[in-house]
Amino acid sequence: MAVRIILLGYKKPLEREDLFELNESDSSYIVCPIFEKQWRKEVLRNQERQEIKASFHKEARARKPSLLYALWNTFKFVLIQVALFKVFADILSFTSPLIMKQMIIFCEHRQDFGWRGYGYALALFVVVFLQTLILQQYQRFNMLTSAKIKTAVIGLIYKKALLLSNVSRKRFSTGEVINLMSADAQQLMDLTANLNLLWSAPLQILMAVSLLWQELGPAVLAGTAVLVLVIPINALVATRVKKLKKSQTKNKDKQIKLLNEILHGIKILKLYAWEPSYKKKIVEIREQELEVQKSAGYLAVFSMLTLTCIPFLVSLATFGIYFLLDEGNFLTATKVFTSMSLFNILKLPLFDLPMVISAVVQTRISLGRLEDFLNTEELLPQNIETNYIGDHAIGFTNASFSWDKTGIPVLKNLNIKIPEGALVAVIGQVGSGKSSVLSAMLGEMEKLTGVVQRKGSVAYVAQQAWIQNCILQENILFGSTMQKQFYEQVLEACALLPDLEQLPNGDQTEIGERGVNISGGQKHRVSLARAVYSRADIYLLDDPFSAVDVHIGKQLFEKVIGSSGILKNKTRVLVTHNLTLLPQMDLIVVMESGRVAQMGTYQELLSKTRNLTHLLQAFSEQEKAHALKRVSVINSRTILKDQILEQNDRPSLDQGKQFSMKKEKIPIGGVKFSTILKYLQAFGWLWVWLSVASYVGQNLVGIGQNLWLSAWAKEAKHMNEFTEWKQIRSNKLNIYGLLGLMQGFFVCSGAYILTRGSLAASRTLYAQLLDNVLHLPLQFFETSPIGQIINRFTKDMFIIDMRFHYYLRTWVNCTLDVIGTVLVIVGALPLFILGVIPLVFLYFTIQRYYVASSRQIRRLAGASRSPIISHFSETLSGVSTIRAFGHEQRFIQQNKEVVNENLVCFYNNVISNRWLSVRLEFLGNLMVFFAALLAVLAGSSIDSAIVGLSISYALNITQSLNFWVRKACEIETNAVSIERVCEYENMGKEAPWIMSKRPPAQWPNKGIVEFINYQARYRDDLGLALQDITFQTHGEEKIGIVGRTGAGKSTLSNCLFRIVERSGGKIIIDGIDISTIGLHDLRGKLNIIPQDPVLFSGTLQMNLDPLDKYSDCQLWEVLELCHLKEFVQSLPKKLLHEISEGGENLRVLVLDSGRITEFGTPQNLICKKGLFFEMLTEAGITQDSVTK
């Protein structure tokens, strides 16, 4: 079945539809539930154990439920089946050296020349072929099982993440949880793949040693002693590397966190020209990371050394002792080559052992982290009674809440009864606990005392609108079925119809991660529409009008929430700052530092007048003017009609947001050689040539050792005199030793050179990537998922740091190995060349077919990995919304779907690898057969030592061949990472930060801004966003820019900062045309308070002043002006408080769809009764309040 895919992949780039599906029993839909059941059993069993222990002795150390045990119970049968395959494969691997021994003996005594020789040759072929088949089956099952284990664990982590309580959410940041999913689950999978080596390696060692004993007697113990001595040294190195890796993860976490923040807050960085200071920070973390990597590289030199020199040291020790033990010990060809083959077999398990042992250690750490996470506190369902059936919708009785079990109560003694169908406002100052009340109603807070009851289903609109990365319609339906009529009604009520006309594909437009391609107000309206569409019984709305324009807020209130809105018969709880709405409420709850200060209807609160005034003082003066003034209600229907009419003849709204998200491109076709050249350039050509030279040297010396041995065995055969033999023996042994030392030297220098070069490459490529990303224009960040960019810094850089140089090195090594082998055999049996030529041809054909499809499957697998992470981080950020709507199951199902997609690609990858291995090893097996056949045919014309040499070389070739193609493929596939890291180089960058023309230091000192026929558009293929803007301000003047959503208010400020570059005209500030100076000179001199506030993690001081320009006194002054001084003084560390991971010449400029409609003082504009006046009336502001 694999053939179909390989052939198809050769004809055209494979797509997802071409891959085979998994068997039902292997898919995540089956695997996850079974494993969850086992895990629940384990948790229960553990609780029972604890109870029994507790009843016996008091201080029982609390044991956590074991993840391993649950995994074993789920997968034991498959694991045992895999182990059985491995046993057979191991036994077969030892039969080929034995057959070779018989052949050498046969060549030495050729009296009964007959069919026996051919029999041996055939037997050898059958054995190696069987070994191939069994091993490939083992590999396939093994990989699939390990992938299933990873799937099961991911499913469990996801489910757990949906249930975390607030304490646990604090303990595990989003980054850490994602790391558990990507790194720790992967670690488990890697270990499972190598698990069988834990018993198979000792078994192979035992068999090899016992067979060697038959050849060389007790001398074997000397060789084995050398091997055993090397293991602890290797293990030491492994633990050191392990420690380094651990410190590496810390650096990685820091780096990802900082990158995440930088990319999320990139707008601020650009507007304030802070890129260099943040770039410096990341580079500092990166340097620490490279230091660690350097040490790890040098330690690897050591393991490389032991790897290559062990076979030589072992044979040196063994033969040396063998001669010393007994003078009469001759070295015959049989003995030399059989023992060499066995030592070669011995080499692999010995290296795998330390690797597996260190993997076990690492997996124990990962298991610990996973178990910690899976056993953290969950939200208790008893925080709130949801099946209450009394007469009110929500009831609190003497209830107190805190964010964690031990913490101080945030809400104290709440007694609130909310009747069904009531409209309730929760008001109070910032930090008085308004949002906490909603969280308590949702059951998101820990209840300390009292009773909370809630009746019916809930819909929740969070303060930070949470938008999914899917089409707009799916965001609103949120898993419900489509009912056209109601859906249209909801869209109209939430004022989304005009927005849909602007979006490129209406409600089928794909919305990017975190809703980056729609405006703040649109996000809020979408999340409100989602709530309304869910037709719940209770609506909890957390300040839904804060991000929308005044008149839209008014319309939303009337059409959705108010007494004539869609929700008029539902229970609505509204946290709000807008006091004009209070008269329309059925019940008002006034919160003050966690307690209910006042509660009652608007009339009741008014009758206790002092309280109401007291309440109003809590709000700003301007809102007081609103609340005491007659609330002017405008007929919203006529306005809507006008608005829609207006919008039809206006060019489209907010164009900057128009582009939908870019999906990650899956590159097609071969990896260009230029990509690898790029890496080599970064590596440094000097290092490249030096390392190639050291590898050639190392391989030549290796061949030299074997030729020396065979020549020695040949001479020994013709010796008659015993004394002669003794003389040449020590001489031969010394030269053999010398060759070994040379090999060691080459290996060491090669590995050292490689470490130096790969560090240089990592440093260069990372610096380029960071630089390129920070120079990209802001629009790029608004249309690309952040995850995609972070992936470049994490996954792709990891491959460049750790993997790529290793693949290149192994590939060069294998190439030299194969060439060496072929040369040695051809030297011994010249006819062999006739067999080699067609084999080489076949070999390259197979490789061509395989590489084409494998590359594509791997790219699909890579692309199928990001949705898992995206969906996961999206879930983590919207977890309270998902829980409020009660949609956990649906999201768990979605997670299974994305995981399954990834699993399908992975499985196809495994199958195509097996296809390759079977064919390649078959070619290798044919080579063995040819070499054996030629040796038999040559008859007595050939020396038995030569037979031994060529067959033992041929037996080695299969592994090298397989490795060779695999590595060529790895290079191809992983070069994609280099492509991706370099892809930002060729994207359009913003203008240079600093140019040769620099403005004077005092500029701008007057503050005269002049727009001259200014035009701007967001992209070449879109219409103008600003058209012919011309106006001039006087110095030190306050200018208000007003206009409807999408009229171009933000675009205007973006143009001042050159976030959007001009299409015509110019902007002059104090006599300097802003397009002639560098961006940092411009942005550093202007200031802006952006629409969405972003805080970076770090100290408060660093957020205020990342460039360290100002003194503490100046910072305190600023805080005082922003009314934050008291708040900051109340913090324990004040400015060093750690922030954790978000007039008479006032003139007004009215914009309408990118044109200036009116410009003048407010009074004159009102008298003109134009667009400005119309907007005022919509917002319910009367003339007298303006003159006030």
UniProtKB/TrEMBL annotation:
Residues 394-618 form the ABC transporter domain. It comes from the Eukaryota. Keywords: ATP-binding, Membrane, Nucleotide-binding, Transmembrane, Transmembrane helix, Transport. It holds the Pfam family ABC_membrane. Residues 80-362, 689-963 form the ABC transmembrane type-1 domain. It is found in: Membrane. The chain crosses the membrane at residues 118-135, 219-238, 296-325, 735-754, 818-846, 922-942. This is Multidrug resistance-associated protein 1-like.
